[in-house]
Amino acid sequence: MAVQAAEENSPVLAVDKVDVRFGGIHALRGVSLNVREGEICGLIGPNGAGKTTLFNCITRLNTVTAGAIRLNGQALEPLPPRQIIRMGIARTFQNLGIYAGMTVLENVMLGAHHFSGGRFIDALLRPGRSRRIEQELKARCADVLADLGLGDVANVLAGSLPYATQKRIEIARALASRPALLLLDEPAGGLTHGEVAEFGDMVARVRETYGVTVLLIEHHMGLVMGLCDRVEVFHLGQNLASGKPEEVRANPAVINAYLGKSR
Ligand SMILES: Nc1ncnc2c1ncn2[C@@H]1O[C@H](COP(=O)(O)OP(=O)(O)OP(=O)(O)O)[C@@H](O)[C@H]1O
């Protein structure tokens, strides 16, 4: 019973005393954080605090110098980056990663591709099976597009759509891989005030619909405070504070290091 209770409480993402050095730069200095199932957790802090470095460690683009990162209890450090998406982690980047010359549906299908099992030899030897898998994939991605209000533009070239819609396509593509953990790196960058509000509503709906856990780096405090259940603050590669949005907003150390008078 005690074991079961411990498992129920165990975090989806556990970052434990992670250190990262790039030559002489000590980008992360023993940071720790937990993100629980179904939580939307904000990660904030001044430029250079180490937020993106942590995302890069989770997705294995950077290597930790010390410490450990676990997804549902499994250590990520031994895994190659290509394995990360299979583990249930999907990510969007600060810069748009949309293929402008592909349709919206094709962009989203890229996100689900690792489910197809559609290896080249397999496709040659078992074309019927490959076609069926492709059809299933297409149907699943079409469902994701419908959920995100993108059904009407499924066959439109992604590059011809407004920036805010392209941001939505990125989320759809990330969801197509059926992630347990969704990492969003400054998703509100470049959006207007109204678009940010709509984006926040969409992320909240996505959490409900897909039961996904979200870790979100963001400088837009309106979005962070309105959307997140909990906020972690980094400063100079270290944990500075952690708590509910209203607690973090009122924390003098956070105000001093980051929020200043802009809150
Ligand atoms: N590949 C790298 N090589 C050397 N230094 C790096 C590398 N990646 C990050 N850094 C350094 O690590 C520190 C943390 O950078 P990081 O990009 O993680 O900060 P951040 O909190 O995401 O900042 P921002 O809000 O500006 O995106 C910075 O000093 C940065 O210059």
TrEMBL record:
PROSITE patterns reported in the protein's UniProt record: ABC_TRANSPORTER_2
Pfam families given in the database record: ABC_tran, BCA_ABC_TP_C
**Which GO cellular component does the record give, naming just one?**
plasma membrane
UniProt cross-references to Gene3D superfamilies, sorted A to Z: P-loop containing nucleotide triphosphate hydrolases
Q: Which CDD domains match?
A: ABC_Mj1267_LivG_branched (cd03219)
Q: Which UniProt keywords apply?
A: ATP-binding, Nucleotide-binding, Transport
ABC transporter domain segment(s): 13-261
Annotated GO molecular function terms are: ATP binding; ATP hydrolysis activity
Provide the protein name.
Leucine/isoleucine/valine transporter subunit ATP-binding component of ABC superfamily
Specify the species: Mesorhizobium delmotii
Q: What is the lineage of its organism?
A: Bacteria, Pseudomonadati, Pseudomonadota, Alphaproteobacteria, Hyphomicrobiales
